[in-house]
Design goal:
Number of helices: 11
Low-confidence stretches: 228-234
Structural class: alpha/beta
CATH architecture of the largest domain: 2-Layer Sandwich
Distance between the termini: 42 Å
Number of strands: 15
Number of domains: 2
Strand content: 15-25%
Mean pLDDT: 94
CATH superfamily of the largest domain: Dihydrodipicolinate Reductase, domain 2
CATH topology of the largest domain: Dihydrodipicolinate Reductase, domain 2
Helix content: 25-40%
């Protein structure tokens, strides 16, 4: 069995700099052998920060010359499918950033390629690997919450549109905005914690008015918006996606889930919180605070969690998958399911109707 896995990083922008270059540089059984990006400026940053000095601007050339065991795809949404397929057809395994594709039909096309390949394909839903997830899943498995009837998750930024005017805010390339960027995280995480029950229906809304005001030249409160510098430098003043969205989702088992996300919203400060509520107890997502009955009283206790970046854990898990030690923790089939739900979210928001899921 191979001891060291040669990894290529495709996309050296924000997510690579913040997560993947560190995560795959730490394990002894992983070696980053090359990086690929269309922007040579990212080569300089990567070499300075991470010591990598082998770069390409063409991912096919990188795959053909370097022949990595696996690649990490951290490029814009509209490139995920084609890059992943190119790797799979060369028997190169893939860790693909979320969302796996822009739409469910794209994900279905990718799934056919995954099934036809001998290589591994895993989706980068890193929140599943948070230490908090272990605590919450244990509470649920031990029936500490009882029958779960309601969940809520929100990730709301006062002002934080990533890369205004770049592919992030161009529907022809990204397809969607904050729902695909942040909503996919929260949707997948709650679904995973609940044990991945079948979906029943979706009712949703979305808005892009604040972004459009900025596109039209208004200041719109963005003066002190803080975001990674790797996301800056607009290609053009284009914003035709949503900067806020919400969805009410029902599962077949009777549990309901309220999702709220925003890149820009007129709130006092950013909000990141969530909860899972049952008839015996409830738990918040981060920090993990377990609230339950104790006789006639209510007791809340914070469950300690050792801090560790979820991307680091995800990298180790992916390497275990390559070694055949574990089954795929985030397979393409689950990615297709999530994309079908997200398609329904957009359909519901556009039609102002509830959408039933099959």
């Amino acid at each position: 069995m191979k001891k060291v896995w040669n990894i290529g990083i495709i996309g050296l922008g924000g997510i690579a700099q913040m997560s993947h270059l560190r995560a795959f540089g730490l394990p002894e059984n992983s070696k980053i052998i090359a990086g690929c990006d269309l922007n040579p400026d990212n080569f300089k940053v990567t070499e300075k920060e991470w010591g990598l000095n082998n770069f390409y601007t063409n991912y096919i050339e990188m795959m053909e010359k370097e022949k990595p065991d696996a690649v990490v795809v951290g490029t814009p949404n509209f490139t995920h499918k084609d890059i992943s397929i190119a790797a799979l057809r060369r028997n190169i395994s893939v860790l693909c950033e979320k969302p796996v594709c822009r739409t469910a039909p794209e994900a279905e096309e990718l799934r056919r390629e995954v099934k036809a390949s001998k290589a591994h394909f895993m989706i980068g839903q890193c929140m599943r690997f948070r230490k908090e997830a272990e605590k919450i899943k244990t509470l649920i498995a031990e029936n500490k919450l009882g029958r779960i009837y309601y969940c809520k998750a929100c990730y709301l930024r006062q002002r934080g549109i990533p890369g205004f005017g770049t592919w992030f805010t161009d529907s022809s390339r990204a397809h969607g905005g904050v729902i695909l960027d942040l909503g996919v995280h929260m949707l997948d995480y709650i679904w995973y914690l609940l044990g991945k029950p079948p979906f029943k229906s979706v009712s949703a809304m979305k808005s892009g008015n604040i972004g459009r005001r900025k596109q039209n030249g208004e200041e719109a409160g963005f003066d002190k918006s803080e975001y990674p510098s790797t996301y800056r430098g607009p290609e053009k003043q284009l914003f035709d996606v949503e900067e806020a969205g919400a969805a009410f989702i029902r599962f077949e088992n009777g549990t309901s889930f309220q999702l709220e996300v925003s890149w820009a919203m007129n709130i006092e400060k950013d909000i990141s919180q969530g909860m899972i509520l049952g008839d015996k107890g409830g738990v918040t997502l981060s920090p993990v605070i377990y609230t339950h009955e104790q006789g006639t009283k209510m007791l809340s206790e914070e469950l300690p969690v050792a801090p560790e970046p979820s991307a680091d854990i995800q990298a180790r898990v992916f390497l275990d998958l390559l070694a055949g030690k574990i089954p795929n923790p985030v397979p393409i089939d689950e990615g297709v399911t999530i994309m079908k739900v997200l398609d329904a979210v957009y359909e519901s928001a556009a039609s102002n109707k509830e959408i039933t899921l099959n």
